[in-house]
Specification:
Protein name: Aminotransferase-like plant mobile domain-containing protein
Domain Aminotransferase-like plant mobile: 1-210
Helix content: 25-40%
Strand content: 5-15%
Organism: Linum tenue
Largest sheet: 3 strands, antiparallel
Number of helices: 8
Length: 228
């Protein structure tokens, strides 16, 4: 699919003609919202407000309740928890797992947990979805700290953003960059390309169970179309 991509037209070039992934495809396959404000991230480093923390360290602590060390430690993938304006998703998930997993001496997250703990867990989960699913980098582990400024916003503000258009724009950019002759890696939400190809290119689509009933009573009937 990458080899058939033409960055001049943002289309896949087939013998039968050209076709492309549209905003409607993103909305149907992922159920991400189309309507809303533009997703715009601010990469300006926050000012230093605590003597023993850098600006980003304090900002990450405010969002997640965790303070990543800038030197010395490395996550399970060999990346530092905080480096060059990026935070390690592997480090974040490992820390939050230790915090709430009884096997590691943590306190389980329950309905009786504080609102602060629930909010932190939810924001880290959303951050993982952004950095690991919809806007992954080539490392598939590091996420720009700029996303933290959106995650720190109100739930209504995050829900009122046009995430589908941001995901499509990033996907187009990733395909354009990867189509260069010397490039050997790609980032972005490649699962969308796979789902889209399965829906539109019948000769590579997986076989669908004819006995599978996708009626109104199916548990995935009201989920994103890609869940099928």
């Amino acid at each position: 699919m990458v080899e058939r991509w033409r960055k001049e037209t943002h289309c896949f070039n087939f013998r039968e003609g050209e076709c492309t992934i549209t905003l409607k495809d993103i909305a149907i396959l992922t159920d991400l919202p189309i309507d809303g404000d533009v997703v715009c991230v601010d990469s300006t480093p926050p000012p230093k407000v605590v003597a023993n923390m850098s600006g980003w360290q304090h900002f990450i602590w405010t969002v997640t309740g965790l303070c990543p060390p800038e030197k010395g430690d490395h996550d399970a993938d060999g990346h530092p928890p905080l480096s060059k304006g990026q935070v390690s998703i592997t480090w974040l998930t490992a820390e939050i797992r230790c915090k709430h997993n009884p096997e590691f001496g943590g306190i389980p997250l329950t309905e009786e947990s504080s609102e602060r703990d629930k909010e932190i867990y939810a924001r880290i989960y959303i951050l993982g979805m952004i950095g690991g699913v919809f806007f992954p980098k080539k490392s598939n582990n590091l996420i720009s700290n700029s996303w933290l400024k959106i995650i720190l916003g109100s739930w209504d503000d995050m829900g009122n953003l046009s995430w589908a258009s941001a995901c499509l724009a990033q996907l187009y950019r990733s395909l354009c960059n990867a189509s260069a002759r010397a490039v050997k890696e790609i980032d972005g939400a490649m699962f969308i390309v796979q789902f889209w190809a399965w829906e539109h290119l019948q000769w590579i689509a997986p076989k669908v169970d004819p006995d599978k009933d996708w009626g109104p009573d199916h548990p995935l009937r009201h989920e994103a179309y890609g869940c099928r």
